[in-house]
């Protein structure tokens, strides 16, 4: 493990502890300016504790992040969670966010030392985009609250679960994607952002969960068009000017 990744792990562990403290504070104090004056501090306090636990899991996962792709995934997990916590616990999450951002930066710098970050991004940007859309669904669910909000929260978890199991069962992964994206979009049909996000989740997710080639570079499952883009990029770097018209 590189020094940067070791520091990222330690900082991520601290971020998890600080995030847990923010969640407990929200549960204990209820609606206060320090936690963003939330209307449902109980639910958001629980979600904050879940985010804190996710930071802890991300810090543990750094020990297995030996590739550029893996370290970029860890960095993204830290950075996205750092931002999401600000929507659930307000100012109380700031210390955890600072520590998580530091972890994300360190993990990202560690990724640079293992290979081409640009090539890794090209290989992995479709799944990364799906994760970002799932995070948007989560934030929309937290904003909606109530039963409808729970559909958004559960939907984001289902989409992430679909990504996690896509190499084991494509059929189940596709089912999770559709079941996760559709109900919240239908329940909030009167809005614009939520149905559009649901449509994008399905439109972007289906090609990822039903790949046409599984031997993409780095062992990452991608669709054939994205794999070709990555191959062309590597050739252009290795042989500048080749293939240009």
Summarize the structure.
The chain is mainly α and 245 residues long. It has helices at residues 3-29, 41-61, 68-89, 94-112, 117-144, 146-164, 170-187, 193-209, 224-238. The model is unreliable at 214-226 (pLDDT under 50).
Structural class: mainly alpha
Strand elements, count: 0
Could you report the average pLDDT, rounded to the nearest whole number? 82
Alpha carbon gap, first and last residue:
44 Å
The Rg value, from CA coordinates, equals 19 Å
Order of helices and strands: HHHHHHHHH
The amount of beta strand, in percent, is: under 5%
Structure annotation, total helices: 9
**Percent in helix:** over 70%
Largest sheet: none
Regions with little confidence, pLDDT below 50 for 5+ residues: 214-226
The outline comes out as flat
Features:
single chain; 245 residues; mainly alpha; 9 helices; flat
Question: If you had to describe this structure to a student in words, what would you say it looks like?
Answer:
It is a single chain. The model is unreliable at 214-226 (pLDDT under 50). The chain has helices at residues 3-29, 41-61, 68-89, 94-112, 117-144, 146-164, 170-187, 193-209, 224-238. The N and C termini lie far apart (44 Å). It has nine helices and no strands.
List the helices and strands and how they pair.
Elements: H1 3-29, H2 41-61, H3 68-89, H4 94-112, H5 117-144, H6 146-164, H7 170-187, H8 193-209, H9 224-238
Helix pairs in contact: 1-2, 1-3, 1-4, 2-3, 3-4, 3-5, 5-6, 5-8, 5-9, 6-7, 7-8
